[in-house]
Write a structure and sequence with these properties.
With about 325 residues, the protein is an alpha/beta fold. Helices cover about 45% and strands about 15% of the residues. The protein has two domains: about 160 residues, Alpha-Beta Barrel (TIM Barrel), CATH 3.20.20; about 110 residues, no CATH class. The longest helix is centred in the last third of the chain and has 20 residues. To bacterial alkanal monooxygenase alpha and beta chains.
Length: about 325
Amino acid sequence: MKNFEISVLDLAPVKQGKSIHDTFQDSLSLANHTEHLNYKRFWLAEHHNMESIASSATSVLIGFIANGTKTIRVGSGGIMLPNHSSLVIAEQFGTLESLFPGRIDLGLGRAPGTDGLTAQALGRNPAIINQQFPRQILELQTYFSKENADALVRAIPGEGLDIPLYMLGSSTDSAWLAAELGLPYAFAGHFAPEQMEMAFKIYREHFQPSQQLDQPYIMACVNGVAAETSEEAHKISTTLFQAFINIVRNDRKPFAPPVDDMDDIWSPMEKSMVLQKLRHTFIGDQAEIEEKMKDFQEKFNVDELIINSHIYDHQKRLRSYEIFREASNSLSKA
């Protein structure tokens, strides 16, 4: 089993009884905490029209987090590129990289990050997404290149800057594209685990070296809830389960505190649906987290594990990331 890096995915979760200002302060607190714990990167995800997620203006929030930290890499996990002009994203991330040199990542996805009506409001054209997305990535690479200095349209800031691109995926489609373009590949195992194993296989087998990357680099995002005891971890994980029940029911309300018994909330069919989506969720005390990490790595052999932690109590969320770091350190010494 090879060693792997660990990183953070933060959705800027809005909790019941808390303001969005509170949410942003908690995200900054988490970034500072995980920086101190030597996590590799802190990514924020673009979502829209959801009361439970406040990371819609992703580039702005990245700037806030980067300004409040010193060493951890900060970036998007991801920017939903067809929601935007390639030039605007090049300028935004060129600005971020100029402000925080050597610390900015640009992770890219093609999904809307929202519902169909909001996707229309964002100006997406679903009929051309599959052609538009690869073209936009090539446009970004052009805008960031020094060779674009003689072009009529230039990204300033952005031009000539080394801003690494990452391909995000929740199906096998982006695995083919990441392999073709020679980009690092991050899979959304925290909500779409069904095709993860096949996506990694496609990416590894078809990878073409590029200027950015000479060999495959695989990242897997998983949900993680760790606590001092297994019982406490399973209790506080009910916030995560409730969040997924809300997705099933198309209810976007803020995240709820833990409950004693999920069977009072979900039906047997809903429970089955949620547990299927959360099959790669790590819940437990440190020993259990170590075992789950070990089993996952023996199966998937990733380069980096990105942990998304939906825990209502902020101090317990911080402690969860401490336990994941301790578990990771223990495995690396084994």
